[in-house]
Structures are given as C-alpha cells and as structure tokens.
Amino acid sequence: MSTEVLLLQLFIGLSLGSIYVMMASGLSLIFGLMRVVNFAHGSFYMLGAYAFVFTLSLLGNFWICLIIGPIIVGLLGIFVEWSGIRPLYGTEEYNPLLLTLGLNYIFVDIIRILFGLGGIGSSVPEALDGMVNLGFMMFPKYRFFMIVAGAVVVILVWLFINKTNIGMVVRAGTKDNEMVQMLGINIKLVWRLIFGLGIALAALSGALIAPITGLVPEMGMFMVIEAFVVVVIGGMGSFMGSIVAGILVGEVIAITNLFFAQAGTVVIFVLMVIVLLATKAGLFGEG
C-alpha cells in the first residue's frame, strides 16, 4: 500500500469524521443539558438531507439551500421539543426516549409517502466538483469542503458555548439545572434553543452527506446508531468528546474499509467496548 493511498484514506476519514462530529455534537448538547436520549436524531439527519434537496430543486442555489434546509429542520426540532418533549419533563426518564423512538418511524414513513420508497440522487455543485491539489496529493473538492465546513461549524458552536451568555447558562445547566432555575433563568427556554441547535446540526450533516451517498428514507437508521457510538466513546454529554471521538471513528472506518470492506461498523463497536472497559465513562466522560 502506497503512502498516497493511506493519506487519501486518512483525508476521507476526516471528511466522514466531520459528519460524525456534527451528529454527535448535537446529541451531546441535547443529552448534556436536557438528559434526553434523542432516538429521532437520525430521522432529523435524514430530514435535513431531504429538506436540502427539496429546497435546492425550488431555488437552485446550493449555498442558500445548505443553510435554509437545516434551519427548517431545526425549527421543526424546536416545535417537537415544545409540543412533545416538554410535557414529559418530570415524568419517567424513558418517556422522552419512547417518544423520540416513535417520532423516528413517523418521520421515515412521512418521507416514504412524500418521496417514495426509492432513493433520490443529489449532485455535487459545479464549484465543488473535481479535484483539489493539496500539494502532496489530489483530493475531491467536495470532501475537502466537508472537512472545512465541519471545522467551521465546530468552531462556531464552541464559541457559542464558551463565549456567549446563553452558552454560560448551558454550561451551568449541564452541572446543575435547579441552581440555574433558582437564579431566575428560564432554563426550559434554553433547553428548547439547544434542542433546536442540536437538531440543526444533525440536519446540516445530512445535507452535507447527501451529494456523496444520495438519499433514502432509512438513511438515518444506521447513522444514529453510529452517532450514539461516537457519543459513548467521547463521553455522554461531552462536546469535546464528540469532536475527538467523531474524528477517531471516521478515521477508523476509513482505514478499516481499506483492508476489510464494510467491516468499519463492526470495528467501531469493538472500539467502543475497549474504551468503556478502559475508561468506564468514555474519553471525556465523568464517571
């Protein structure tokens, strides 16, 4: 195996890792603040892809639709939190889990009805088609864009969490929600905003991957499982853990598939078991 092939796979792993980072970051933000295990996260990933492609068919502008699609799905997430999850606060912890699990199947069936059972293609925009010269190898422009986009999104979310007043409330809320409420802060409104942000991140990752994989109604089913693996490896509720674990999982899958095609998913589950046995709570978890 040549060095160029190995480097190519490593960069492919980075592009895949950027998708996992955005997916897992959304899950971690929601769980870390709200303690809600969102099993509908994969369907919002799928809805992001479909919203992107649908708006693209209407507007024809890739860049605008890449923003509009996730915003639409993020607003849907806010509505779901307000109408479905909010009434379940204070009840048994498994109730939101069951609700989001049911929503997952509902959203998939709605997309099947609207767009059919078959797949839908999505092409790479002309500006991002072809290859880019990195100096040491040629690499697909669109995958390089995925890496850059993922890095930009992570930096923006990090700045939001660490440099804004809302972010300060979020960080405090992950430690002690009751204390934040005693200070007179409407923590449930913050929950709603964070839920919408987490959903928008999932939708953006779905929109970004659409030109690579195409779209099928079930595309979020396996992705959400892999995203949960990333969250567990990184540490439940840890934003930094999601970043590190997302990149790690992307690289592991890319390198594994180089030697054993389609074995990457099995390997990341093995990796999860090893990490849990070694750390108990994930790489950045508090156990």
Contiguous helical run count: 11
Over all CA atoms, what is the radius of gyration?
A: 19 Å
Supply the number of structural domains: 1
**Major β-sheet annotation:** 2 strands, antiparallel
Approximately what portion of the residues adopt beta-strand conformation? under 5%
* End-to-end C-alpha gap: 41 Å
Broad shape:
globular
Could you estimate the helical fraction of the residues in percent?
over 70%
Round the mean pLDDT to the nearest integer and report it: 91
The multimeric state of the shown protein is single chain
Order of helices and strands: HHHHEEHHHHHHH
Low-confidence stretches: none
What's the number of extended β-strand segments?
A: 2
Walk across the major sheet and give the strand order: 1-2
Secondary structure class reads mainly alpha
